[in-house]
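To close the chapter, one final illustration. This time we ask the reader to focus less on the individual chains and more on the assembly as a whole: which components sit near each other, and how the overall shape emerges from the parts.
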Amino acid sequence: MSQATAQTEDDRATVATVCLGGCSGCHMEFLNIDHDLVDLLEDVKFEASHMIVDEKGVPEADIGIAEGVVTNEENIEVAEELRENCDTVVAWGDCAALRGIMSLRNDDDPDEMIDEVYLDKADEESESPRDDVPVPALLEDARPLDEYIDVDVYIPGCPPDAEVMAHGIEALLDGEQPEIVDEKLQYD
Ligand code: SF4
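The assembled structure is written out below.
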């Protein structure tokens, strides 16, 4: 069977996930669905997600999921790409949904933070990473996703419970809006 034929027979829904200004904790928690991931993969194909496939950028997908705040200029580009290429956009976790713990940096000056991390703490003998590696410019504040793009679904928590995240995907596959009950809200 040719590869082209195999692709046309794959009628699974497609999902792309991105990590903006997050700690990857939401993605790591999602993997705690353990063997249920195998069942989920019968209905879902992950087109991009750093936890599962080594695919850069945001391809077209039925569901686009973002973790983390919008905290630098690159995050804006990725968020806009997610919105443009995905039919439904989901904010995973308090950072993406509400701005969360990652916004604690909002009281500090972005330039001073960059200098402290990449210059002041650098070994005097080594060259500054800031000179060699392009670091995306920090925005004045870290903000939630819906301040930059329209968001269709919010999954709160830090990180959200793995089952809640999986249920969110399954509900969307059934054409339903995921319901988050208080008992399932998780802040670990
Ligand atoms: Fe990390 Fe919590 Fe933010 Fe998810 S919501 S990216 S786990 S800090």
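Residues 22-23, 25-26, 67-68, 93-95, 100-102, 158-159 surround iron/sulfur cluster (CB under 6 Å). The radius of gyration is 18 Å. With these observations in hand, you are ready for the problems at the end of the chapter.
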